[in-house]
Amino acid sequence: MKRPILIHPDPRLKKACAPVPDLSDELRVLADDMLETMYDAPGIGLAAPQVGVLDRLIVLDCAKNDQGEEARPLVMFNPRVLAGSDERNVYEEGCLSIPDQYAEVERPKVVDVEWLDRDGKLRTETFDGLWATCVQHEIDHLDGKLFIDYLKPLKRQMITRKMQKLKRERARA
Ligand SMILES: [Zn+2]
């Protein structure tokens, strides 16, 4: 089932989320709903606070289907960056909670990430390139941080004002 995506600014997008103590069927349903919502948007990543749930859960799939890559949906409970490379990478980032706004953000190019998968199994993997950027962007959401928080204040305020306007228009529609 698709869930509505919160649009910035929203206090729920600024909160630090709580670790998931135990996996449950309810949480697996939430993860499946988030994947469905992400693919439908379409997007390559989604964090639980973006659907109003303040749990440490993200989903992502950065496979390039237009280049023939097979879908690779990842569900990560309590994801954690263990280490990041000194080498940095710049990507033009966007966010489903900040529609149609994009900006360059610099992050470590390669990161080691640990998480609990859908079956509660502890996993670690090294991510590079777009996958690394995406997983860091999504984990940031769990700490109440948005990609626009990396931008200069003026640019951030400009985007926030556009989003306030968008929300007003949507509320009237
Ligand atoms: Zn985002």
Automatic annotation (TrEMBL):
Query: Do you know which PANTHER family this protein is assigned to?
Result: PEPTIDE DEFORMYLASE
Q: What does this protein do?
A: Removes the formyl group from the N-terminal Met of newly synthesized proteins. Requires at least a dipeptide for an efficient rate of reaction. N-terminal L-methionine is a prerequisite for activity but the enzyme has broad specificity at other positions.
Which residues participate directly in catalysis?
E138
Q: What is its EC number?
A: 3.5.1.88
Q: Which reaction does it catalyse?
A: N-terminal N-formyl-L-methionyl-[peptide] + H2O = N-terminal L-methionyl-[peptide] + formate
Family annotation (Pfam families)? Pep_deformylase
What's the domain of life for this entry? Bacteria
Do the record's keywords include Protein transport? Answer: no
The protein here is known as Peptide deformylase
Q: Give the cofactor binding note.
A: Binds 1 Fe(2+) ion.
Organism name: Salipiger profundus
Q: Which UniProt keywords apply?
A: Hydrolase, Iron, Metal-binding, Protein biosynthesis
Needed co-factor(s): Fe(2+)
Q: Name one GO molecular function term.
A: metal ion binding
Q: Which GO terms describe its biological process?
A: translation
InterPro entries assigned to the protein according to its UniProt record, in alphabetical order = Peptide_deformylase (IPR023635), Peptide_deformylase_sf (IPR036821)
Q: NCBIfam families recorded for this chain?
A: pept_deformyl, PRK00150.1-3
Instruction: Cite the binding residues for Fe cation.
Output: C95, H137, H141
Family label: Belongs to the polypeptide deformylase family.
